[in-house]
Give the backbone structure.
Amino acid sequence: MTLMTKLLDSLIHIAVAFLLVFGSGVTASFANNEPPELGDNLQKVRVQLKWTHQFQFAGFYAAIEQGFFKDAGLDVELIAGGPEIDPAEVVVSGNAEFGIGNSSLLIDFNAGRPVVAVSPVLQHSPFVILARLDPTIRSVRDLEGKTLMGETHSTELLAYLKTAGVDLDRIQLVKHTGTVLSLKTSGSDRVDAMTAYMTTEPFEAARHNISYQIFNPRDLNINFYGDTLFTSRQLAQKQPRTVSAMRDALISGWRYALTHQSEIVDLILRKYQPKMSRTELNFEAQATYNLFQTDVVDIGYMSRERWQHIGNTYASSGMMPKDFTLDGFLFSPEEVLPAWVYRALLWGGLAIVLGGILAAYIASLNLRLAASLKKLGAQAEKLEAANTELARLSATDPLTGLFNRRYFDETLVNELNRACRSQSPLSLLMIDVDYFKKYNDALGHPAGDLCLKRVAEVLRNNAQRSGEFAARIGGEKFAVVTSNLGAVEAASLADRILREIADMKIQHPGSSFGFVTVSIGVSTFEHCPGQSHDQLINEADTALYRAKQKGRNCCVAYSG
């Protein structure tokens, strides 16, 4: 049975049941299920944040400034949080309609708190453990016998340590001071590790010249949501349209904030008096962007299976009963039909509605019949498309979408032969991302993958002419092949790529430049006879090595 058939059948059953059971007086029972009023009569709602003002809540700032909340009929007041604020308690007590929490909301729910998860903000939690570089600390289990600065009530910390098999009795847990300087100080105030957010503390550590390593719960398949918008059970049940309006407007706000980072940083500095500098906010903005995974899922996407995984993690750590439930915890506005639907069924005339449904049902049957006649042709087209896609994938790097090493090797030989026949120049640019291992170590592999994608986009945009292509040939190493460009023109192209990548200002706490840069080696064959593609590659690699010796973030042309 198709989705259309199921929908039409459901509507028929709803209409008939509505007529027979409820009658015309049903509308009164749905009086509370109304959308927020538009215009000047806005619905006042309060949101309890989990921390003080910073880019972590940029979606709210953008939604207020751009009028997304107002367009949704909402007048939103933001309440700053802090270390002693429990957003769940604030919302449950009625002092705010919405809050920003973390995955521990599921623990709260199963403990009897009437909270409802509306929408995740971050697809991945920024929570990590920052530890001193120490030969005795190679994994999170090595923290036994060491001093850890954190919060005893941190459910993410406890789940991480228990999953890793750490004996909690052998860890000296001390109160969090809120500063990475505790990793640097000597004496009784020094700690071996601390809980941190990868969106902020790595920048602080790099700024204070603190050598550190990161232990990420995701390495043990602990994949929690980050910030999550939530509300009370009462509001979710009585005013689902209000909850949906808040969610949708916030998602619009985050879409705007992630594509206008500098503008939102200016707004935060001007209007919200954060405790962070512009440079810190810019770093936080980029690191926060990496946690959204907008290239994988839509902003605000929430998965029941993901919450089940989170619950299983908590349960296996003894922090929640193994028979926990998700029923009633996840906001599902589709479960409650708004009052106007029922009024439409009555006031529009049930007979007309049923007649329209029947006509639509017949139309759907005709459409399915027509679709069946085209099925064989469609299958043939799909097969052809699949073969085309298979050929493309065999030549494509799955992460960046550039050509892969196999395509590079085969096509370089062909381009070199063509250049020899036409006596035209051929240039090869070898490109390597500077200090990329330090970038992965500081921000994690998902951030590293996103960084490579952004570098690849610059290369793709600069290799658009006939006889040009860009490829990822391994790890953080790329190549650009360009026909009909001599040494001078190729060096100019390399310089343009350098500038464009540096101008993206991708924050890099492990680089002396403070942002992501590349080194480029250039090799050019002006006349090809007697020269091989291996020689061209070796010369470009030699030039690349010399660029790194010069200090990186530069290009060097091979000169023998």
